[in-house]
Every structure is written in C-alpha cells, then in structure tokens.
C-alpha cells in the first residue's frame, strides 16, 4: 500500500507534463475560432448588465455553463484587451 502512495506524485507530474505538451501542440497547430469568444463575451455582458439568473444568461452558441468566477476572469480579459479577440488569444 505504501508503494502506491509514493507513486502518486510521479504519476501526477507525468500527467501534468503530457497535458502541457498536448495543450501546446493544440495552440500551435489548431486554428483559433472566434465563436467561443463571442459567446463568452455576450454572457459576460449579460452578467455585467445585472442579470444574475443563470438560466437567462446565454451566449451565441450555448447556454451558460461556467461558474461565477468565469465572469470576473473574462471581465479582466475583456478590460485588458479592449474586447479584441486577437490580443486576448495571446493572453
């Protein structure tokens, strides 16, 4: 039983490294689409406009599925980038 416990950090580190590699490859080789940006920004706009009923917050492509911290994080990104998708993509 002790052997399994000592391997957990090593397995977690390997999985984290694989995740970093996979995400890096996706960022490099998969073209970015603006669809999700527009949906997220419309949801943030609704929230910043005072809507607090999550069932009424919908984006261009989907209903809201994020926690409230999402709104604050995207508000900061929206503020820093001036609502422009390409500077945000480099964020």
From TrEMBL:
Transmembrane segments: 12-32, 64-81
Lineage of producing organism: Eukaryota, Viridiplantae, Streptophyta, Embryophyta, Tracheophyta
Top class in the EC scheme: transferase
Name of the protein in question: dolichyl-P-Man:Man5GlcNAc2-PP-dolichol alpha-1,3-mannosyltransferase
Gene this protein is translated from: LOC120282259
Record carries keyword Aminoacyl-tRNA synthetase: no
E.C. numbers: 2.4.1.258
Main location: endoplasmic reticulum
Pfam family, one: ALG3
